[in-house]
Specification:
This protein has 121 residues and is mainly alpha-helical. It has one domain. Helices cover 79% and strands 0% of the residues. α2 runs antiparallel to α3. The protein is elongated. It starts with 11 loop residues before the first helix and ends with a helix.
Length: 121
């Protein structure tokens, strides 16, 4: 079962304007600030939901260990599922935050190499 994680991409209009040098440095800093603000707000929500899921799954494993012990196959299955859950959370984090950040940084590095370090997200 593959869960579709929506990827948040950089707006193609903004990407095109960056690559065509249509932004001044001040405008580009404003775009960077807007992206950073959006990601900060979304990151808080993501962390809260992710923490809730992790705590709920940890409670499930703790209850399973308490009532069935740590020797049964169900406990090991739950631990393996916890590892897959951690991988899915990491994949969702990358899709949600890493893609847009990477696209912005790559565009700035190509179009404005002299300001790439200053504008890096």
């Amino acid at each position: 079962m593959d869960i579709k994680v929506p990827t948040v991409n950089l707006d193609p209009v903004i990407e095109g304007k960056i690559e065509r040098h249509e932004y001044t440095l001040d405008e580009l800093q404003k775009v960077r600030a807007d992206i950073a603000q959006y990601q900060a707000a979304t990151r808080k929500q993501f962390v809260a939901i992710g923490a809730l899921v992790v705590v709920a799954f940890a409670a499930l494993i703790a209850l399973l260990a308490f009532f069935m012990g740590t020797k049964g196959p169900l406990f090991y299955l739950a631990v393996v599922l916890a590892m897959f859950l951690a991988l899915e959370i990491a994949r969702a984090w990358q899709a949600r935050f890493g893609t847009m950040r990477g696209q912005f940084n790559a565009c700035v590095r190509r179009a404005y190499p002299e300001h790439a370090d200053q504008l890096r997200l």
